[in-house]
């Protein structure tokens, strides 16, 4: 009986410690996500994303780049449900841009999320990605704690995407080796 109690206590402690280690940020209206963007030419630009509106049929992200201005990206139901491509154009300051139905900005669609959950793979920008267990160097951390993410890697291993493990808001928090030329990584979420 003592062994059972001891094993139970150790299990509870291990689960509690693991839960405390992984960050699971809640993404809702008003949350700010800070990124660093590498434009492919070695230039690193700070990018502030604000979650301005989140609904089943509509998401609006605000953006701010110091020295360039601010604006917004509006993604509607078809994008949120079915898109398989990212939007990689230059942001237009002073306007809210409607994103095309087949594209999303810094999010995965429900179809992509479901493919990851069901088949452990997804399509992104006309490439196939498979879920991969990150090694120690590939763990994504904020404030010294692991961020609860899913990492996917292209079939040739040249590109990786880290996505918040959050079916309600599967935000892209890091892209490395992006074939579209723009890498980015999250620096804080508040």
Portion of residues in beta strands equals: 35-45%
Radius of gyration (Å): 18 Å
SSE topology string: HEEEEHEEEHEEEEEEEE
The residue ranges in which pLDDT falls below 50 over 5 or more consecutive positions are 1-20
Basic shape: globular
The multimeric state of the shown protein is single chain
Distance between the termini: 46 Å
Spatial strand order of the main sheet:
6-4-3-2-1-15-14-13-12-9-8
Topology:
Elements (H helix, E strand, L loop, with lengths): L1 H20 L10 E7 L5 E12 L2 E8 L3 E8 H6 L2 E2 L9 E3 L4 E2 L5 H10 L1 E4 L2 E5 L9 E2 L2 E2 L2 E6 L5 E5 L7 E5 L6 E7 L1
Parallel strand pairs: 4-6, 5-7
Antiparallel strand pairs: 1-2, 1-15, 2-3, 3-4, 8-9, 9-12, 10-11, 12-13, 13-14, 14-15
Describe the protein:
This protein is α+β, with helices and mostly antiparallel strands and 190 residues long. It has one domain. It is built from three helices and 15 strands. It has helices at 2-21, 77-82, 110-119, and strands spanning 32-38, 44-55, 58-65, 69-76, 85-86, 96-98, 103-104, 121-124, 127-131, 141-142, 145-146, 149-154, 160-164, 172-176, 183-189.
Question: In short, what is this structure?
Answer:
This protein has helices spanning 2-21, 77-82, 110-119, and strands at 32-38, 44-55, 58-65, 69-76, 85-86, 96-98, 103-104, 121-124, 127-131, 141-142, 145-146, 149-154, 160-164, 172-176, 183-189.
